[in-house]
Hints:
The complex is a heterodimer of chains A (311) and B (252). Chain A is built from 15 helices and two strands. Chain A has helices at 6-23, 26-50, 59-76, 81-103, 108-128, 154-174, 178-181, 184-188, 190-196, 200-226, 231-234, 237-250, 257-275, 280-294, 298-310, and strands at 138-139, 228-229. Chain A has a two-stranded antiparallel ribbon. Chain B is α/β, with parallel strands linked by helices. Chain B has nine helices and ten strands. In chain B, the strands form two sheets. In chain B, strands 6-7-8-3-9-10 form a six-stranded mixed beta sheet, sandwiched between helices. In chain B, helix 3 crosses helix 4 (124-136) and helix 5 (152-164) packs parallel to helix 6. The longest helix of chain B has 17 residues, at 182-198. Chain B is globular, with a radius of gyration of 18 Å. Chain A binds chain B through residues 173, 176-182, 184-185, 187-189, 191-199, and chain B through 54, 75-77, 80-81, 85-86, 92-97, 105-106, 108-110, 112-113, 116-122, 162-163, 166.
Amino acid sequence: MLRDNTxxxxxxxxxxxILFGAVAPNWIVNQLMFGxxxxxxxxxxLVLWRTGLVSFGHAFYFGLGAYxxxxxxxxxxxxxxxxxxxxxxxxxxxxxxLVGFIMRNYRxxxxxxxxxxxxxxxxxxxxxxxxxxxxxxxxxxxxTIFGVAPETKYPLFVVITTVAIVSALLINFYLKTTIGRLxxxxxxxxxxxxxxxxxxxxxIHLKYTMSAILAGGAGALMAMSLxxxxxxxxxxxxxxxxxxxxxxxxxxxxxxxPFIGSLVFEVLRTYAFELxxxxxxxxxxxxxxxxxxxxxxxxxxxxxxxxxxxS
Amino acid sequence: xxxxxxxxxxRDLLKTFGAxxxxxxxxxxxxxxxxxxxxxxxxxxxxxxxxxxxxxxxxTSGSIAFDGVQLVGKGPREVTHAGISRSFQVSQVxxxxxxxxxxxxxxxxxxxxxxxxxxEMDSPDLLTRRDDVLTRYHLDxxxxxxxxxxxxxVRKLLDIAxxxxxxxxxxxxxxxxxxxxxxxxxxxxxxxxxxLREDEVTVLFVEHDMEIVERYVSRVLAFYQGEIIADMxxxxxxxxxxxxxxxxxxxx
Lengths: 311, 252
């Protein structure tokens, strides 16, 4: 059996990236922050995808997380990065837990689109509500960390990377537990899982809630890194689409994959936009097709192949 | 053995689907250690009976008591927890996973109930147990193969092995030899029955093959149109006029 070095790689890689961020130019630090923030949501979608479930509406939780930060900042004057993050993640988690009672009964396209429906309800409410910023959204102040207001974005970058490391380690462990292993079995044969004595509904509910917490945390961190929230970049269905896109781009093979996939996506989109402002979707779409045709296991399958050939 | 209290007591079981009566007046006592064969033509109510005992179907009326515990109203999961497992006519396994992985998840679910499900799955203890089951069910050589590529016979062995890792007291096998070639069937049943006897599991199995019934069961339940028409030793049952007419005679 192959030994799993994932947690070591996550820990060492994460620390190296934090050190690298101290000397890297601003634009790279920004890309890393956006990439790692979004990757948290992908981590949750990875768990669902392994279970055979694709949500086309996780912008709901992403947006909830982001807007919680905005409300905490503007209405309550909360500046602390951890309070904001936990607020966003917990609210999204609570929403996910409640919505999960419905979602755990649906599969396939129904699961995917029911999630879209819920996210579009929230989108509609926010767009129509003046006090929630309507289509303009809000600007968000740079968070304080342990009571200190940083002058650069680097401390926030350190927080985001640390949260990314911890989340990756937790999910990596989760995927090794009995309940965490109940992904492919549920995708393959739900009846058998029930007859073995485990409730499929409970297992899916837990995974769904976890994915909501992660997406909420992702939205909260993204809001703070961007310094603003607005419905089109946080809750619209295109955001859900992006999340699914990055999940497929990354591949379900390993918890490190979402972080690589998200970074590739950030860089791809930035350069595609600079290169061809009117055709950038074409480039992103072409990449998507290439991945599906030639790398069905996502970018991660390239890395795991490399790893196997060198060892 | 006959004096001991039955482990499974089925009383006046009735199951109707609208106007169709799928099971009627089913009264059965099963004692510990028995190997009971359930025979009958297609549509006679055999699988319906298995599905009611394992909680997949809810009887219209009647009672099923397992060691004094009422099973009617319980779902498959609760019945499994109570100590009754089943295998399936068409093997129900995880087809994109390897044989070893299939067994491991079955073991882990059985052994890591409640919060233990949050512990790492691959414990040395479970790995040892897994290898033990692989050996006893002659699955060693298929260990690392994906179920997709395996023959029906191997899948069925795996299906049964997965059902017994929870150490059930009663095991229901739904047509264990269906889909298995004539040359393989006795070897297959030898492996299964030997392993089950070792564990002292009480077995009820649905079977169409009278050679298998004659060779492996201690008692026969013959079903015809939802009712039990014979409950006796295999020798008597196969010689019984009603069984010959309604069960064996209508086989083909």
